[in-house]
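Example record used in the benchmark description.
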Amino acid sequence: MVNATQDTGSAASLFASLNAGSGSTAKTSTATDTQNRFLKLLVTQMKNQDPLNPMDNAQVTSQMAQLSTVMGIDKLNVTLQALSDSMLPNQSLQAASMIGRGVLVPGNGVEIVNGAGFGGVDLAQSVEQVNITIHDQTGASVRNIQLGAQPAGLVNWQWDGRSDAGVNAMEGSYTFSVNAVQAGAKVDTTALQYGVVNSVMQGKQGVTLSIGQTDGIGLSQVRQIF
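Model output (structure tokens):
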């Protein structure tokens, strides 16, 4: 008589036996494969049980119930994956409508184009004062823009392309920093840079955008569309 299979009474031990040595292959097994393997192992277990110490009916029922639960989760995962796969093409089509339009995404770059630059800032709370400082490529301050008191949320700002001395700055790339204050304390902010969407890509990371000279920007990073 073979009595070793009595130790597989728990569903955890049974599924461990099913998945032993399968590695990544177990992750791709279908619900039908899992059910067939379970039933085959269960029949083998019952055929080799000790007649003097047979399996408890409640034990078998419990194993079947837990198998049903696992299979249900497996089918739910398949359904969710199919739903996710069907959403990607729709996201790509929606994102394609953004090509050629300006957007704000996290970043601290600002470009002077046709004598003007644009940017934004996301404020964690309302503030008494917001100050934008434009820096050239050497890090030197070029222009300070005071926005005054602002409510919480997204705030847009515009630079006329002039320095603090009133001289027209050269067209090109600059950076900016944000200083927001409330009751003498600095407030958390998120700098937002302006750019034009050049193209839309769909890959393993989902739908991403090419904005200005930057690629791989997630669709969820877009804070505002113009």
